[in-house]
UniProtKB/TrEMBL annotation:
Name the UniProt record assigns to this protein: L-threonine dehydratase catabolic TdcB
Species annotation: Leucobacter ruminantium
Metabolic or biological pathway: Amino-acid degradation; L-threonine degradation via propanoate pathway; propanoate from L-threonine: step 1/4
Protein family membership: Belongs to the serine/threonine dehydratase family.
Occurrences of domain ACT (ranges): 335-412
Length: 412
């Protein structure tokens, strides 16, 4: 075993600790996901319903509780755009420790307000997280306050691993666990706790990690055998958008995690819509990564399976956009461009064809001024609601069968 890695007894001790302020979140079943995955059962560990809206409170509280009296007097510092900030702020308030949280300029307003609401001093600095983190480190050097890292620390990992112990207490028959990965604190704790628990019980456990394909440093790091820094691209899953694994978390993932897969933003958007519609759960993009891996076929699980919904802190404005994107990615929204002869009655005729296919028109744009159009024709752009890809294809084909030239436009 890795020398600095927590042992099962460390996770069990941490479970008693974190339950002083955290909730034992539900483990909900999903028959739909079980059918998709082809396994007996799929369970969702609802850390989106945790206090502060994410699992991060577990590790933050476990770390802060280990501070000496002298360290508590100096206060703590964190750099975060969201869940870690709220977890540290909440834990610090409960323990009477002064917390200063550095957040980037442009941080989502709900996350900023929540962090301040938990009593932390918030400093907005830096256009990127790297700039924000440098400002936090400079503050630590100046004041002597203790920096609380988001993932690469044994006490943080111990706290996050309590998620696995709760899952296994509720469903000891779980054989596969699917976990989102950012810097690796959650999956390190979950995988180590679950596999050590399984070994004690004389059985095996499979753990699958899921990263955003636009911010996936673990796969190349595992390929070369050491943590590497990658250039990330924008992703809706900002909670797991990390450019480099932690040193300790990398070693723990290498030892305890069986496979790491990646998912696209479209995959994640579809997962968020599915969780809203079928599970009635609001989950942030990072938290939906595991479900995205199931729906996209990326996760190859066996036996009873559980996926961790790691957080639910999503800006309502982003949620609105993600829902639209997820519906479009599932072909529930379609954009059709139709060439029509410029004569009366064509709009009514096309609308009737769409209606005959039981699709719904939500927006119509009619133009005759585009320079690429023949002078005797107009273009009709229809935005329609469908039941999915097959239904959308049937609508387009019905219009073509009626003699129209139809082009399926860009997805939203």
């Amino acid at each position: 075993m890795i020398e600095a890695a927590p042992r099962l007894e460390d996770f069990e001790r941490a479970l008693d600790v974190v339950h002083r302020i955290t909730q034992r979140t539900p483990l909900e079943s999903s028959r739909y996901l079980a059918e998709v995955l082809g396994v007996p059962s799929v369970y969702l560990k609802c850390e989106n319903l945790q206090r502060t809206g994410a699992y991060k409170l577990r590790g933050a509280y476990n770390r802060l509780l280990q501070l000496s009296d002298e360290e508590r007097k100096r206060g703590v510092v964190a750099a975060s755009a969201g869940n870690h900030a709220q977890g540290v702020a909440f834990a610090a308030r409960e323990l009477g420790v002064k917390a200063t949280i550095f957040m980037p300029l442009g941080v989502a307003l709900p996350k900023l307000q929540a962090t301040r609401g938990y009593g932390a001093d918030v400093v907005l600095e830096g256009a990127t997280f790297d700039e924000t983190n440098r400002a936090a480190q400079a503050f630590v050097a100046e004041t002597g306050a203790l920096f609380v890292p988001p993932f690469d620390h044994p006490a943080i990992i111990e706290g996050q691993g309590t998620v696995a112990l709760e899952m296994l207490e509720a469903r000891p028959d779980i054989e596969t666990i699917i976990v989102p990965i950012g810097g690796g604190g959650l999956i390190s704790g979950v995988a180590a706790a679950a596999k050590q628990w399984a070994a004690r019980e004389g059985r095996t456990m499979r753990v699958i990690g899921v990263q955003s394909e636009n911010a996936a440093p673990f796969k190349p790091s595992l390929d070369v055998g050491r943590p590497v820094t990658i250039e990330t691209r924008p992703t809706i899953a900002d909670g797991i958008a990390v450019a480099r694994p932690g040193d300790l978390t990398f070693e723990m993932v290498r030892e305890y995690v069986d496979e790491v897969v990646t998912v696209s933003d479209d995959d994640i958007a579809r997962a968020i819509v599915m969780l809203l519609e079928r599970a009635k759960l609001v989950v942030e993009p990072a938290g939906a990564a595991g479900v995205a891996a199931i729906l996209s076929g990326k996760a190859k699980a066996k036996g009873v399976t559980a996926s961790v919904l790691s957080g639910g802190n999503i800006d309502p404005l982003l949620l609105q956009r993600v829902i639209g994107h997820g519906l479009a990615a599932s072909a529930r929204y379609m954009k059709l461009r139709i060439l029509l002869p410029d004569i009366p009655g064509q709009l009514v005729r096309t609308a009737s064809i769409v209606a005959s296919q039981n699709a719904n028109v939500v927006e119509v744009i009619h133009t005759r001024h585009a320079t690429e159009l023949p002078i005797s024709e107009v273009e009709l752009e229809l935005h329609i609601e469908t039941r999915g890809h097959e239904h959308g294809d049937a609508v387009a084909q019905a219009l073509r069968d009626a003699g129209y030239v139809v082009r399926v436009g860009e997805r939203y």
